[in-house]
Design goal:
344 residues; mainly beta; 10-stranded antiparallel sheet; 5-stranded antiparallel sheet; 2 helices; 10% helix; Agenet_dom_plant; Agenet-like_dom; AGENET DOMAIN-CONTAINING PROTEIN
């Protein structure tokens, strides 16, 4: 009897990432997480990983041997499209070319000399750039760029309308589920912040006694997390005594109190009711260990569950829909949504 041959497993055959394809690669190294670097796909593996070669990162100090790495599929994307000419505006989400990579930021100032100040959430830095080193921020979602290039929007409108009509029944069901979730949160005395439009306030807004806020930390293992708290009283210039809503003292006798500077305090974000499901690669906040942590949806499981990837800890965890919220940043006294593309 002729022995049967063992079937060979096929390599990853994503049409966007064939060997030789030009791509951008997201770094996971400390201090560089979230930045993208140009490179080329060398080969696909039999898993969801790819071998890539960087254009401007090298293994040797002389710069003669381009760096090669094996990366996950969610770390690579095609080269984003770019308008030949664009007038950038205040509060627009952009990518800025810095240190051989593209970094996501928000325009906080439009200067008279044609340059733009860009704020980077990951490093809490603001750096000035010229127009040629900026591009509109786009997300690679389900094999397409959002938002599309200017001029392509009209072609997409009919398709969007069809999808909206098709999913109307599902939306009504999700609305009912979200209404139940809102009632549950109200019963837990969660502050009512149901307005969808961004809240604006002066750049030098002060926090008043009894105000509900969120507080961040620079401690190892807690960077990027925001904890719910209440302002107790001011304790000096740009500093407040706060009381956490969930963290307790070591002897568990009372809620923990700390003195925090205003750099680490922000108002509670406006609560946006998510009627639609979150999408793959959408930036979200996930409620975990009594805090909100910024992450990216890496996989949409059977509703209402999602896998969320956290860049800072290089972890991937599963969450319920009710434990996620759209990510927003508090910049210059107003809330800014990282990717306006997701609202299309």
């Amino acid at each position: 009897m002729t022995p049967r041959s063992t079937p060979k497993s096929k390599s990853n055959q994503n049409p966007h990432f064939k060997p030789g394809s030009k791509v951008e690669i997201m770094s996971e190294e400390d201090g560089f997480r979230g930045s993208f670097y140009t490179g080329t796909v060398v080969k696909a593996t039999r898993t969801s990983k790819f071998v890539v070669e960087y254009d401007k990162l090298f293994e040797d100090e002389e710069g003669t041997k381009p760096l090669q790495e094996t990366v996950n599929e969610f770390q690579i994307r095609p080269i984003p499209p770019r308008e030949k000419k664009r007038e950038f505006k205040f509060s627009e989400e952009v990518d800025a070319f810095h240190n051989d990579g593209w970094w996501e930021g928000v325009i906080t100032e439009v200067n008279d000399d044609g340059k733009f100040a860009v704020f980077f959430r990951s490093t809490k830095e603001q750096i000035e750039f010229s127009e040629e080193n900026l591009r509109l921020h786009r997300e690679w979602i389900n094999g397409a760029w959002k938002p599309t290039l200017e001029g392509e929007e009209e072609e997409k409108k009919e398709e969007v309308k069809e999808k909206e009509n098709e999913g109307s029944r599902n939306k009504r069901k999700l609305v009912e589920e979200e209404e139940k979730e809102v009632k549950r949160r109200v019963n837990k005395k969660v502050p009512d912040t149901t307005q969808v439009k961004p809240i604006e306030s002066p750049k030098d807004a002060k926090f008043s006694k009894g105000m509900l806020v969120e507080v961040s930390s620079d401690e190892d293992g807690l960077k990027g997390a925001w904890f719910a708290a209440t302002i107790v009283e001011p304790v000096g210039k740009d500093k407040y005594l706060i009381e956490y809503q969930a963290l307790r003292t070591e002897d568990d006798s009372d809620f923990l109190r700390e003195e925090i500077d205003t750099v680490h305090i922000r108002p509670c974000p406006p609560q946006t009711i998510m009627i639609d499901r979150f999408k793959k690669l959408e930036e979200v906040d996930a409620l975990f260990n009594d805090a909100w942590w910024v992450g990216v949806v890496s996989r949409v499981n059977t509703f209402p569950k999602y896998l969320v990837f956290f860049k800072d800890s290089n972890e991937e965890l599963e969450f319920q829909h009710s434990d996620l919220r759209p990510h927003q940043d508090w910049i210059n006294g107003k809330w800014v949504t990282p990717s306006k593309a997701l609202k299309l």
